[in-house]
Amino acid sequence: MDHFLYRDGKLFAEDVPVSEIAAAVGTPFYCYSTATFERHFRLFDEALEGTDHLVCYAMKASSNQAILKTLAALGAGMDVVSGGEYARAKAAGVPGERIVFSGVGKTRDEIHAALTGGLRQFNVESEPEMAVINEVALELGVVAPITVRVNPDVDAKTHAKIATGKSENKFGIPISRAREVYAHAASLPGLKVIGIDVHIGSQLTQLEPFRLAYRKVAELTETLRADGHDIQRLDLGGGLGIPYERSNEAPPLPVEYGAMVKEELGHLGCEIEIEPGRLIAGNAGIMVSKVIYVKEGEDREFMIVDGAMNDLIRPAMYEAHHDIIPVVEPTPGEEPAAYDIVGPVCETGDTFAKSRTMAKVEAGDLIAFRSAGAYGAVMSSEYNTRPLIPEVLVNGDQFAVIRRRPTFDEMINRDTIPEWL
Ligand code: LLP
Fold it and tell me: Which range of residues forms the domain containing residue 393?
């Protein structure tokens, strides 16, 4: 459920007409709903009620300061995967003890920054990384709390580019080697082993792969405890999917996920940590774009819009589906049309949808790409020297630009000319 609904024939973001925001900021832009972010965070928090837990928002999904502050105010922790994300989380006022540092290749500088600024734990991805964390901690005279990310070799049954839990993927250490790696970790004086981490992929639409992975983690917890390790915390990653195609998708709900977590892991008495990104942010955002032209092709109609693959890359990169709706509600009984919906960027990959049936549009009409709140703005680029599009946050009947559109001069002036030119 989200807060982008038609009222009297007009699309609203909470209590603000989307057309009003478009008139104020210009198109294209991202528009987020505070209430949806809050609702989705709470769904996870409530799903784990009764167990000691922390929901650490995977901020890679959408990392504007205003969004981080909104979630942090509800008590969210943050899952960060780079020095930049760590700095963003701190700048938004998230205390170090609520920041988990994940990521497959943490550099010495990033490790140093997190140990200096404070963190909840590092999720260690390899033995070489473990050695560097130990070294930096010893240099600083501190002890780094760590979990080791295990790769359970489970098929997440999701898009190949976002599956992470098979042995062929670059993530974690093979679960079969966990005892050896934990024994090594325990021997390093700069580290304190506190738990186990696992994340098997993103946009999972079934509970079974999670269940298989968590069962392996439960077994491993008991084995490692028997080996003498103090396993107190289980970080279960993120990955729960959202319904991108609302007419025919119904992935499991957070409450069902939470029940499964308690069933598989509840008996261990561990603190549970989860790192959802997409489910919190995805349906909390839309991308609003304007139709520039409707062009008759030989055998199809092209809807050319002012948003493009540089603004929302998911369709081009993962063949992802986004529901696309007009900002003015179609009248019932109106004859629809089929469009290839494309952006102005100079490559065929800049296609959002092929032969998409929707209400007829004309140049100047506004459309909204739904489910664009996660991995939308954060993956955008300035390809074709198109400015990064603004982000707008709605809260009830108010809205604010939370990242403005840069000017052409700002973009150009980031380049520097060598003295020989
Ligand atoms: N934890 C770790 C260690 C992760 O790598 C990820 C996502 C998450 C948590 C959050 O997963 P989520 O709950 O959002 O599924 N750009 C792709 C998605 C990449 C996901 C990367 N890792 C997309 O647009 O579909």
Answer: 4-31+282-412
